[in-house]
Amino acid sequence: MFSIGIVGLPNVGKSLLFKTLTKKEVKVSNYPFCTIEPNKGIIEIPDRRLDLLFEKIKPEKKIPSMIEFTDIAGLVKGAHKGEGLGNQFLEEIRKVDAILHLVRGFEEKNMPLSSGGITPLEDIKIINLELILSDLAFLEKIIPKIEKEAKRGNELFKKKLRILNFFKETLLKEEPLSNIFLTKEQKELVKEYHFLTQKPQLIVLNIKFNQISLENLKKIKKEIIKEFKKEESEILTIDVRFENEILEFEKEEREEFLKEIKEKIDSLDDLISSSFKILNLIVFYTFNEKEIRAWELEEETSIIEAAKKIHTDFYKNFIRAEVINWKDFLNYRSWNEAKEKGALNIVGKDYFLKDGEIIYIKV
Ligand SMILES: Nc1nc2c(ncn2[C@@H]2O[C@H](COP(=O)(O)OP(=O)(O)O)[C@@H](O)[C@H]2O)c(=O)[nH]1
Ligand SMILES: [Mg+2]
Q1: Centre of ligand 1 from the C-alpha of residue 229, in Å
Q2: pTM of the shown model
Q3: Per-residue pLDDT reduced to its tens digit, 44-100
Q4: CB of 111 sitting under 6 A from ligand 1
């Protein structure tokens, strides 16, 4: 399962966000492979396509894709040098696939801010600098070893060394590694190191919706986009405490509330969807009479890898597969009808799956 780490300075609302998210948690007992740890929770991904397919096919069960969220304790300045258990927390970040960077955008009388005000840009910089310095310290540890191998004439290590030296230069300029464009081959070469600043990062501003004007909010967002070279879709605003409070409400009531302030804040579902999106995964579907299921997969992966994910038998005995885009499938009454009308694409094991495809594997 892919995982997201909630990261940020102390007192920005990470644990409250985690608590709010895990109120939506799936029953872990359904997933015996999952370890139960207090700071981890498994959340279902909202998926309109899956809902529509479920309504059409009407199997007994619907199984959405899921991701794991981890509440990682607050980083402080100097974390990379071990400040405030920093190294331990940074190691936890190394294990996740993407970072949800929560930033404080609310004021609270009994919780004064050390800087005396709301300073999201500075706060983001503090955390990102710790990630950069941690990557740099790690690089300095591994480069000499790789240099040794490269000197012996190992071509692979020579290639690695070139990339890692370039990484070092970038980090020394206090830039994250995500700013560097890498080819697929280059990415493969450094994948094993799990650099922190290479992980996709979603920035989430935690505000009090009645405390900040829409104008001001837009301005802050724009500054963040510019300063950290982010896409608009990589920045969300959320009112964590409010989301926590309205969880108790009925769905209609909740939507009524949200409609009023929609311009200012994103919803918890938006947050979950965006966390999933930054992982750059595709989703494909399988179904039978019993269940319809969504599966997540890395982009540019062949169908044989998808088969492996479903069941090793499908992987071992794969003959071919039938594939159709989910929306196209809605035009037919059944799989058989789609097949008779020639709408199914028959593919071999090297076929690259595309987002939103339904597959049926023949063994
Ligand atoms: N006003 C307001 N207070 C919040 C919000 N989120 C968290 N808090 C409060 O801030 C304090 C720290 O929150 P916590 O989730 O423990 O922060 P963490 O250190 O980042 O895990 C707690 O007293 C929370 O109740 C929020 O969205 N709005
Ligand atoms: Mg906490």
Answers
A1: 27
A2: 0.89
A3: 999 999 999 999 999 999 999 999 999 998 788 887 887 767 777 888 999 999 999
A4: yes
Does the beta carbon of 176 lie inside 6 Å of ligand 1?
no
Distance CA 243, CA 267 (A): 8
Atom of ligand 1 nearest to the CA of 8: 20
Whether 26 shows a pLDDT value over 70: the answer reads: no
In this predicted structure, what is the pLDDT of residue 164?
Answer: 97
Rounded CA separation 164/167 (Å): 5
Q: Tell me whether the CATH fold assigned to 3-277 matches the one assigned to 300-362.
A: no
Coil vs helix vs strand at 286: strand
Backbone angles phi, psi at 231, to 5 degrees: -85, 160
Query: Could you tell me the distance, in angstroms and rounded to a whole number, from the CA of residue 76 to the centre of ligand 1?
Result: 16
The model's pLDDT over 273-321, given as tens digits with 9 standing for 90+, comes to 999 999 989 999 999 999 999 999 988 889 999 999 999 999 999 999 9
Q: How far is CA 149 from CA 62, 154, 155, 359, in A?
A: 51, 6, 9, 44
Among the four given CATH numbers 3.40.50.300, 2.60.40.1640, 3.30.365.10, 1.10.8.60, the one describing domain 3-277: 3.40.50.300
The model's pLDDT over 257-282, given as tens digits with 9 standing for 90+, comes to: 777 788 889 989 899 999 999 998 99
> How far apart are the CA of 11 and the centre of ligand 2, in A?
7
- Residue ranges per domain, the chain? 3-277, 300-362
Whose CA is closest to atom 3 on ligand 1? 241
CATH 3.10.20.30 applies to domain 300-362? yes
Q: Rounded to an integer, what distance in angstroms lies between the CA atom of residue 202 and that of residue 349? A: 34
For residue 25, give the DSSP letter: P
